[in-house]
Amino acid sequence: STANQVYIGHGPYEMNPATEIRFGTHTATTHNLGGSTHMVIDSSGNVGINETSPTSYGNSQATLVIKDTTGPAISWNDTGQTRDWFAIAQGSGLHFNYADGGGSSSASNVTNVLVLDNSGSIGLNTTSLSTEASLFIGKQPSAGNAEGGQLVLQSSVNGSKAIHIDNYNNASTDFCRFMRGTDTNSEAVLGVWDITNTRFGIG
């Protein structure tokens, strides 16, 4: 056309249209029949990767279906920073992972940042979700050995005041600490709940 557009399967002129477009590969390097289909675009606009019959869920909206037996994934790669983000379907959970590496190199230092479970539970820095809570905050990899997950309640964006609530272990005793500080650092302990011995201290 005059707009230098390329049409595949349909077009502005009379032609033999396609009700489905398939993309695939073959193990043979010479002229041969067969091969394997790896991506399909159907007449409803659904796209299937490793799925030849992509199904639209909900209100029949166009859907991308990725199928795999060992955890289908979507990857976002920042080539300038050699960093990768992954969204991976693993059993009953959708995992968001961060890793060092690049689009063509093996991922290393993989961190499981967020898990959404089919029961409605959310895990931050942890994949160990139970049925007794809805939000699980795991230990920060950069935190000290005694410090567990921490919840920070901001008073404002980049504010100078915030409340920190964390899990802390000292001499085999577990504590829940309530601290004041900034967005990034705790400064003073306001109260401590001794979980092991069921005691509470203020100041």
Care to describe what's here?
The protein has strands at residues 20-25, 36-42, 47-49, 64-66, 73-78, 83-90, 93-100, 108-117, 122-124, 135-137, 147-154, 162-170, 173-181, 186-194, 199-202. The strands form 3 sheets. A 6-stranded mixed beta sheet has the order 5-6-7-8-9-10, with no helix packed on it. Strands 11-12-13-14-15 form a 5-stranded antiparallel beta sheet, with no helix packed on it. The chain is built from no helices and 15 strands. Helices cover 0% and strands 47% of the residues. With 203 residues, the chain is an all-beta fold. A hairpin with a 4-residue loop joins β5 and β6 (83-90).
Secondary-structure element order, as H and E? EEEEEEEEEEEEEEE
The level of helicity is under 10%
Low-confidence parts, pLDDT < 50 over ≥5 residues? none
The whole-number mean of residue pLDDT values reads 81
The number of distinct helices, counting runs of at least 4 residues, comes to 0
Strand content: over 45%
User: Strands of the largest sheet, in order across it?
Assistant: 5-6-7-8-9-10
Please tell me what the overall shape is.
Answer: elongated
Question: Oligomeric form of this entry?
Answer: single chain
What would you report as the Rg, rounded to the nearest angstrom?
Answer: 26 Å
**Which structural class should the secondary elements be placed in?**
mainly beta
Span of the ends, CA to CA: 76 Å
* Total DSSP E strands: 15
Largest beta-sheet characterization: 6 strands, mixed
